[in-house]
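User: Hi! I'm working on a homework problem where we have to compare a predicted structure to a textbook description. Could you give me the structure for the chain below?
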Amino acid sequence: MESSNVKNKSSGKRKMSSEDTRSYFAWNLEMERVLADVLRDQRNLGNKGDGNWKAVAYSTAAQILSKRFGVHFMADNVKNRFKLWRTWYGIVSDILSQSGFDWDSTKYMITVENEIAWNEYVKSHEEAKRFRFKVIPNWDDIVDLCAKDRATGLRAENALDADDIMSKETNEEEAIHSVSFDLEGSSSATRKTFAQVRVERKKG
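Assistant: Happy to help. Predicted structure tokens:
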């Protein structure tokens, strides 16, 4: 038993499981464009009602994304990404409703004409701070898919939830670089999938 423990400690790396291949990938712009197109199609098919998507919309998007990018997407990946978009929309639309703040459709980010007003605003809207220089190239897609939810009263998550969602997104992307996997014992399909993740990450 002791020799087994020593061996496990000295190996340093762990085998990649199927859960790892599902969890550690980063969204890029091309993936988000495809997701937006699929969700628009699903909306046209009537698979969104009362502000929420039907399960078939998420599963269909996951299947299409998996086939297109060679990465194993799950319905939860799609659901969480849309939840993040809705959170972004809620925060940014609130910013843009204030005097002195605008949207630069060329740089895809907010512009601040009055720094004093901005500093005052973020005192009571701490979640807005990270959007001061945040580039959101798919903002038009986010507006198209989320604005109606906002108008019908389906609010984004509260500030604490929003911060948790965005922190989770950052942590997942960083995990690609910080987690070490031993691929030698993995199947060729698994190695190919993880290699594709890194390629798509670079493209984004």
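For your comparison, note the following. Residues 6-23, 156-160, 170-204 have pLDDT under 50 and may be disordered. The radius of gyration is 20 Å. Good luck with the assignment!
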